[in-house]
Description:
mainly alpha; three-stranded antiparallel β-sheet; 5 helices; 9% strand
Amino acid sequence: xxxxxxxxxxxxxxxxxxxxxxxxxxxxxxxxxxxxxxxxxxxxxxxxxxxxxxxxxxxxxxxxxxxxxxxxxxxxxxxxxxxxxxxxxxxxxxxxxxxxxx
Length: 102
């Protein structure tokens, strides 16, 4: 009785292409969950990520560094983060009471 598992594993690994060090704007849009390429472009601009090059050809898309995008996405605050409270919580003069200390 032959074991077909190794053959299946070799097919799976052969089917997965090697990951490129860059991403197109369409790939970035999907990866970060943006609703459009324009939204993704604005997000990349806010994160300070610029295109590293372009695909060859007349209609070549801009290419962005995959590692830089992953790092920026991992470092962003989570859902529900209240960035407006950051300064209030960190200042020593802030108080939880609206009237201050009596």
